[in-house]
């Protein structure tokens, strides 16, 4: 095999076509911790911290941020980083082991495509709001959320994000390298301005912005749920990052530094900013916190940071879509695919701009899905397969693989997903915030994760082994034999 | 399988799959999460959840 060909196959492995070998992986502990922190400290931490401030004051808010994020991150990382970090497989290729080839495509569309489209609209609108606040600052006028400038700015941001994504990863890397440090500087500046006005005791005693219920414990649990949703929202992305880590431990622990630790710090700063400045909208804080000069610089950076985040998620989602799509979609030009992907975010910006102010509703809806997916992942990988995968099944032709299930879909995993989603909405409705008493001590994500896992485990034990689906071990059969893991001569 | 590239691609995949099968056959998988990691994670999570609730979660 020629050297050029070896390089080509190595690149294909990096993109997810084949498993990455341990020696090919690029990140050690600190490398992944930095990348993970840079991913976490993006403009979404401002939004999540601001949303938390609607329900609780800073003291309860910090508790909600810590509790929610640790639960969400640990469950999301356990179900994705541990298997992907062990075997170096692409996350949605790994998901074939529980959902089937077509099932994993469906999960991709539900969890990545829809999530990314929503985020593109939210971040685009945040760009629009940043421009509107800039205009307000410069012209000393009143901000107007319904202004044409917000819509035009959002549409412009989506178009720019699409154009940059079409240029490829080099431009994205260059933009990303400056954004995380800039946002940290903005956060430090925000804390400086806040601490000049209030003592720490006064800060902690601030009231919430708009608590929807009289019972403060219910408001606190909703804040916890929003932050669990924030932790779970990494589920579609972190598996593919962790496969680049040198081993399983390196693929797991840095998540607690980045998407838990750094994100929690960023959200806490945002929480202080929201409660002291009286708004959950981050673009308003930049205008109000430190005067004209700081406002102009911070709002400009905020718009640029949003644009970078949009490019990142757009590029990643479309790469994955091509990976999983059939030949027809793959034959479309890269630019055409990016353009088509942006149509729905544009429609959301035009028809439902309220998604920005009700951002936490969108976030919590995604948790109804992600928590169930994490539960199924944990049940399948840890309890049914005992942490052993047969990679040959994952990469085999569908017709000859036990992972073909039923026409490429595993009905058991899909049923478990529906069950998890349904119990979530019954326990806590993200749209109306209606909840049962059970929610006030158990949250909605945890029951959803648990029920989805139990349904998947129970029905798989009961039916899948009899039907020959999935290559699961039967009874006392050792997992290594069931998975067919014997080195061939 | 209709070209030299396809054959070489299949060989590359085979090489990768065998590497993992060999690792699976060993008693020790380098860098795998151990029982101590799991215990440490459980304790950390519990301390975070209970500690945060006791210190700031109660109204």
Would you give an account of this structure?
The complex is a heterodimer of chains A (489) and B (59). The model of chain A has no long low-confidence stretch (mean pLDDT 89). Chain A has 489 residues and is mainly α. Chain A has a domain of 336 residues: Hydantoin permease (Orthogonal Bundle). Chain A is built from 25 helices and no strands. Chain A is globular and about 70 Å long. In chain A, 75% of the residues lie in helices and 0% in strands. Chain B is mainly alpha-helical and 59 residues long. Chain B has one domain. Chain B is elongated, with a radius of gyration of 23 Å. The model of chain B has no long low-confidence stretch (mean pLDDT 91). The chains are: A mainly alpha (489), B mainly alpha (59). Chains A and B meet through α1, α4, α11, α13 and α21 of A and α1 and α2 of B. Chain B: Keywords: Membrane, Transmembrane, Transmembrane helix.
Helix/sheet category of chain A? mainly alpha
Q: Greatest contact pair?
A: A-B, 44 and 33 residues
Give the helix tally of chain A.
25
User: CATH superfamily membership of the domain at 23-358 in chain A, which one?
Assistant: Hydantoin permease
**What distance separates the N and C termini of chain A?**
22 Å
Segments of chain A where pLDDT lies below 50 for 5+ residues?
none
Tell me the helix content of chain A: over 70%
Taking all Cα atoms into account, the compactness measure Rg of chain A is 23 Å
Q: Per CATH, which architecture of the domain at 23-358 in chain A?
A: Orthogonal Bundle
Main beta sheet strand tally, sense and closure of chain B: none
Tell me the span between the first and last alpha carbons of chain B.
66 Å
Give the strand content of chain B: under 5%
Tally of separate domains of chain B: 1
Strand content of chain A is under 5%
Main sheet attributes: strand count, strand direction, barrel closure of chain A: none
Structural class given helices, strands, pairing of chain B? Answer: mainly alpha
Which H/E pattern describes the elements of chain A?
Answer: HHHHHHHHHHHHHHHHHHHHHHHHH
Q: Compute the gyration radius of chain B: what is it?
A: 23 Å
CATH class division of the domain at 23-358 in chain A: Mainly Alpha
Keywords (chain B): Membrane, Transmembrane, Transmembrane helix
Transmembrane segments (chain B): 38-56
């Amino acid at each position: 095999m020629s050297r050029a060909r070896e390089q080509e196959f190595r690149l294909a492995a990096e993109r997810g076509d084949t498993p990455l070998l341990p020696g090919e992986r690029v990140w050690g502990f600190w490398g992944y911790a930095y990348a993970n922190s840079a991913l976490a400290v993006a403009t979404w931490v401002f939004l999540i911290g601001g949303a938390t401030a609607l329900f609780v004051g800073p003291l309860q808010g910090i508790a909600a941020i810590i509790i929610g994020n640790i639960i969400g991150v640990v469950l999301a990382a356990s179900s994705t980083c541990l298997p992907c970090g062990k075997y170096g497989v692409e996350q949605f290729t790994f998901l074939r082991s529980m959902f089937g080839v077509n099932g994993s495509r469906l999960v991709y569309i539900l969890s990545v495509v829809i999530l990314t489209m929503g985020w593109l609209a939210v971040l685009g609108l945040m760009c629009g709001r940043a421009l509107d606040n800039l205009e307000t600052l410069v012209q000393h006028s009143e901000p107007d959320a319904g202004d044409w400038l917000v819509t035009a700015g959002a549409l412009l941001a989506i178009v720019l994000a699409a154009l940059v994504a079409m240029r490829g990863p080099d431009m994205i890397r260059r933009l990303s390298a400056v954004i995380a440090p800039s946002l940290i500087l903005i956060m430090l500046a925000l804390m400086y301005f806040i601490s000049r006005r209030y003592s720490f005791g006064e800060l902690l005693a601030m009231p919430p912005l708009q608590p929807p219920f009289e019972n403060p414990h219910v408001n606190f649990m909703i804040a916890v749920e929003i932050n669990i949703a924030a932790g779970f929202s990494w589920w579609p992305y972190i598996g593919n990052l962790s496969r680049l880590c040198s081993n399983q431990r390196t693929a797991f622990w840095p998540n607690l530094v980045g998407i838990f630790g750094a994100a929690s710090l960023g959200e806490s700063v945002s929480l202080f900013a929201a409660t002291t400045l009286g708004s959950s909208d981050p673009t308003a804080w930049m205008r109000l916190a430190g005067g004209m000069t700081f406002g102009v610089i911070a709002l400009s950076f905020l718009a640029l940071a949003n644009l970078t985040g949009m490019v990142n998620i757009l590029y990643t989602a479309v790469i994955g879509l091509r990976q999983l799509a059939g030949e027809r979609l793959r034959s479309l030009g890269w630019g055409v695919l990016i353009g088509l992907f942006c149509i729905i975010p544009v429609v959301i910006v035009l028809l439902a701009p309220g998604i920005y102010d009700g951002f936490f509703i969108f976030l919590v809806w995604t948790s109804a899905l992600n928590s169930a997916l994490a539960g199924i992942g944990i049940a399948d990988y840890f309890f049914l397969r005992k942490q052993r995968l047969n990679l040959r099944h994952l990469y085999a032709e569908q017709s000859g693989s036990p992972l073909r299930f039923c026409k490429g879909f595993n009905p058991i995993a899909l049923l478990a997903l529906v069950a998890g989603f349904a119990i979530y909405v019954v326990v806590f409705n993200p749209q109306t915030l209606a909840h049962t008493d059970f929610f006030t001590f158990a949250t909605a994500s945890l029951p959803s994760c648990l029920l989805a896992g139990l349904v998947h485990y129970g029905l798989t034990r009961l039916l899948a082994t009899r039907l020959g689906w999935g290559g699961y071990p039967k009874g006392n059969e050792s997992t290594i034999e069931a998975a067919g893991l014997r080195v061939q001569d | 399988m209709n070209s030299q590239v396809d054959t070489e691609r299949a060989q590359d995949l085979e090489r990768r799959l065998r590497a993992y099968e060999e690792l699976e056959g060993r008693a020790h998988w380098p860098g795998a999460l151990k029982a101590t990691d799991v215990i440490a994670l459980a304790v950390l999570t519990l301390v975070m959840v209970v500690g945060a609730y006791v210190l700031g979660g109660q109204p």
